[in-house]
Request: fold
Amino acid sequence: MAHLKCRFNLWQSCALITFAVILVPKVSFDYKLILLYLPLVAFMNSNETRRSGLLYSLGFALLLIPKGFWLIRNDVSINCIASPLVMLAMAAGIVVSAYRPRRVTAAVPSV
Reply:
């Protein structure tokens, strides 16, 4: 029987809380993206070496680069669509990876 245990690193916990702070209010302007520096620094200090580490660093880069140059209508930029989608994708990846069962290697008894 498999037990579902949630394993979040420090940077993952910070990222999920920060994404909720940014995404939950009805209106959230671009200056609130400054809050992403705390999970970014925690991520950079972690030992994330898997392939997902590259995906998360790409996600942080996409969130922090300016995207206000491409306008959809009058004063509405592509950032209104792109940043929430990137944050939701990163949050989904964090939650899925936390609940994914880890491979357990059996110890070989020494003779």
User: Anything to note?
Assistant: Residues 10-98 form one domain. The two ends are 30 Å apart (CA to CA). The chain has one domain: 10-98. The mean pLDDT is 79.
